């Protein structure tokens, strides 16, 4: 564990807390993509298949459980809660996310570290996480205005991945034989997808204006 990975974990956790607070406090999921949340739930469930077989540390196990339960909770709120589900922007959240699932699974079958069920699903989760934010970004572009909590949620998610990229670079120079091409490439792709959002978030902060993404 180094400071960059810890910072990545904490910003990831903050993003989930911000989104849960938004939904719970306002009883609204307006501006939130259900399809992105379903993709993240699938990411965590498939990545942490080793939850009850491989123990690394209490911290590691705790974080796995938190991310699985929180992602499933968000999906439940958006699909089943009688008040929250009425605020879901279904007409704007039309990204065909199943295409991302299929492509990620094909990539996992073709490019993986070892041909085992656990490793293939791990690679699948890495590929899928890299593009899971796409439905959310498309929804925000279509809606135009972005409320503060949704904007902060996306900001923390982007920061989480940026910290993890720095973590991989740090480990490459400080640990012997540390080289994992799959998460490196996927992480860079995911960070690049946030570049446009970061740019407009910075402009809104600089001008003290409401965050707006171009259609």
TrEMBL record:
Keyword Transmembrane attached: yes
Bilayer topology annotation: Multi-pass membrane protein
Primary subcellular site in the record, as a coarse category: endoplasmic reticulum
GO biological process: protein retention in ER lumen; protein transport; vesicle-mediated transport
Cellular component per GO, a single term: endoplasmic reticulum membrane
UniProt cross-references to InterPro entries, sorted A to Z: ER_ret_rcpt
Keyword line: Endoplasmic reticulum, ER-Golgi transport, Membrane, Protein transport, Receptor, Transmembrane, Transmembrane helix, Transport
Short name of one Pfam family: ER_lumen_recept
Domain of life: Eukaryota
Subcellular locations according to the entry: Endoplasmic reticulum membrane
Segments traversing the membrane: 56-77, 98-115, 121-140, 152-170, 182-202
GO molecular function, one term: ER retention sequence binding
Family stated for the protein in its record: Belongs to the ERD2 family.
PANTHER family, per the entry: ER LUMEN PROTEIN RETAINING RECEPTOR
Protein name as it appears in the record: ER lumen protein-retaining receptor
Lineage, top ranks: Eukaryota, Viridiplantae, Streptophyta, Embryophyta, Tracheophyta
């Amino acid at each position: 564990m180094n400071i960059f990975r810890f910072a990545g974990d904490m910003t990831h956790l903050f993003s989930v807390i911000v989104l849960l607070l938004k939904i719970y406090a306002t009883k609204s999921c307006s501006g939130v993509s259900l399809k992105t949340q379903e993709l993240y739930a699938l990411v965590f469930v498939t990545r942490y298949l080793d939850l009850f077989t491989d123990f690394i540390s209490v911290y590691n196990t705790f974080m796995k459980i938190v991310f699985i339960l929180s992602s499933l909770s968000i999906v439940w709120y958006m699909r089943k809660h009688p008040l929250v589900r009425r605020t879901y922007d279904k007409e704007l959240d039309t990204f065909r996310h199943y295409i991302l699932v299929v492509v990620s699974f094909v990539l996992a079958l073709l490019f993986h570290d070892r041909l085992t069920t656990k490793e293939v699903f791990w690679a699948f989760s890495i590929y899928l996480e890299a593009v899971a934010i796409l439905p959310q970004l498309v929804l925000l572009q279509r809606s135009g205005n972005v409320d503060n909590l949704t904007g902060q949620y996306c900001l923390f998610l982007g920061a989480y991945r940026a910290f993890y990229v720095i973590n991989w670079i740090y480990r490459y120079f400080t640990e012997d034989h540390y080289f994992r091409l799959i998460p490196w490439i996927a992480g860079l792709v995911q960070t690049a997808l946030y570049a446009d959002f970061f740019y407009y978030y910075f402009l809104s902060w600089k001008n003290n204006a409401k965050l707006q993404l171009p259609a």
